[in-house]
Design brief:
mainly alpha, 453 residues, Growth Hormone, Chain: A
């Protein structure tokens, strides 16, 4: 089997550059969905249910994209056509979602409109996101995969930084952060989605123009695909049975990590509004989501997520210096767990920077190390399919967390008081610590070595 050649830093950069735009869209979604639906009138105990759709669409869409793109080849390549179409749909939906409360619809209708918009947005983001991971697996040799995924992690966090800060920046320049219409999303959020959509399509066009994927014949030579394997009949279930052990062991760690971050995305807004900004209550013992304090907390959550992204960028640069990849993985998750738990004890908005810097360490490891370990253990012509299936280890824990989140919050809530959403961040911290303990069972293998046996 031929070995993939080393690529220049510029080529590695180009392969992942479009990820910057995709991550802006993803950051705007993750930082503002709870804010949008709370503004529309959602109860905090029901808030996690609105988060079921994104991972549910991911678990359906990404394996399909993997399977189809493994079998695709056209003048534009194997993965890039899916990348471009996904980004185009995302741009359209990003212009619709934040306006869910601005079309004069009843609250229930606005929420249904928002849910369908969220479903299409996350589906399209998933379609656009997965090809970047697949192209690294297709085009980068084992020696450079760590660097390639580190570049992808850097661009991911840089995009997150921009997306998270947009509402705060637009408010700072004078765009309204409180709507005059009950249930309507502030202009600061709406404009953020518009600008994010424009950057997304420009970044994806750049990658589409700059990256030339490996033609099928060369791809087969580099990945040890024989004529027999091309004609071999297989299906998803057979592939799962043959999946390397790393697929399942890394997947177990992923379960606790992504459940933790689902709790963060769902409950940070309410946590910061109540625990730090002292948002007023309504007569129903809920936080007043239309109050200036609540909307200011929403902006500050974007700043905190941006701090997390900065911490992630810095830590991603440190991770390659660890000789033991598993130790780096476990340490990163422990630091993130400490960061989550510390939020409970902090009531100063600036001291929270330390918490979210630590959370960024876990995020950096989650973006780079699982895919490095997995793709090194894979060989053959099903790279895209396996990466699509591996996305289940990201989506399933989010679905589980979304389903049980409301029940856990109810267990913490004393009747007649505001739900203590900050407790959910403590649960997130404990989940990361469990994930760190599970890193010990991972056994790294080489797919290339296995293919030679």
């Amino acid at each position: 089997m031929k070995t993939l050649p080393n690529l220049s830093f510029g080529k590695l950069w180009n392969i992942s550059f479009g990820f910057f735009g995709v991550q802006i869209a993803y950051a705007l979604q993750s930082a503002n969905i709870s804010r949008i639906f709370s503004t529309l009138g959602a109860d905090p105990h029901d808030l996690s249910y609105f988060w079921i759709l994104p991972p549910l669409m991911g678990i359906i869409v990404q394996p399909i994209i993997g399977i189809l793109s493994d079998k695709t080849w056209c003048r534009f390549g194997r993965r890039i056509p899916y990348l471009f179409v996904g980004a185009l749909v995302a741009v359209i939906v990003m212009c619709l979602l934040p306006n869910a409360g601005s079309f004069g619809m009843a609250v229930s209708t606005a929420m249904i409109f928002g849910l369908f918009s969220l479903m299409f947005l996350d589906t399209s983001i998933n379609v656009a996101m997965q090809p970047f991971k697949m192209m690294v697996g297709d085009m980068v040799n084992e020696k450079q995969k760590g660097l390639a995924y580190s570049i992808q992690s850097f661009l991911c966090n840089a995009g997150s930084l921009v997306g998270y800060l947009f509402p705060f920046i637009f408010t700072w320049v004078g765009i309204s952060n409180v709507s005059d219409v009950a249930g309507a999303v502030p202009d600061s959020v709406i404009f953020s989605f518009y600008i994010g959509a424009a950057i997304l399509i420009l970044c994806v066009i750049y990658t589409t123009v700059k990256v030339k994927e490996i033609p099928p014949k060369e791809y087969a030579e580099y990945h040890g695909i024989t004529q027999e394997s091309k004609t071999e009949k297989t299906n998803v279930f057979k592939l799962l049975v043959k999946a390397p052990k790393a697929f399942w062991t890394v997947g177990l760690v992923q379960f606790f990590c992504w459940a933790a971050f689902m709790f963060m995305w769902t409950y940070t807004n309410g946590s910061i509004a109540g625990n730090v900004f002292n948002a007023p209550e309504t007569t129903n013992h809920l936080l007043d989501t239309g109050s200036p304090e609540y909307q200011a907390a929403g902006n500050w959550v974007g700043v905190l997520f941006a701090v997390q992204a900065i911490g992630s960028v810095v830590w991603a640069a440190v991770i390659p210096f660890f000789k033991n990849r598993k130790f780096a993985y476990a340490l990163s998750l422990v630091l993130g767990g400490i960061g989550f738990i510390s939020v409970y004890f902090i009531h100063d908005q600036y001291l929270l920077f330390a918490s979210f810097l630590l959370i960024g360490c876990a995020w950096a490891a989650m973006l780079a190390l699982p895919f490095t370990i997995l793709t090194n253990a894979l060989s053959g012509g099903h790279m895209g399919t396996y990466l699509g299936l591996f996305n289940g280890t990201i989506c399933v824990p989010q679905i589980v967390a979304a389903v049980v989140g409301g029940w856990i919050l109810s267990a913490f809530t004393v009747e007649g008081t505001v739900p203590p959403e900050v407790n959910m961040l403590v649960v997130a911290g404990v989940s990361l610590l469990i994930g760190a303990a599970c890193v010990g069972i991972i056994k790294e293998t080489s797919g290339a070595a296995a293919s030679k046996k």
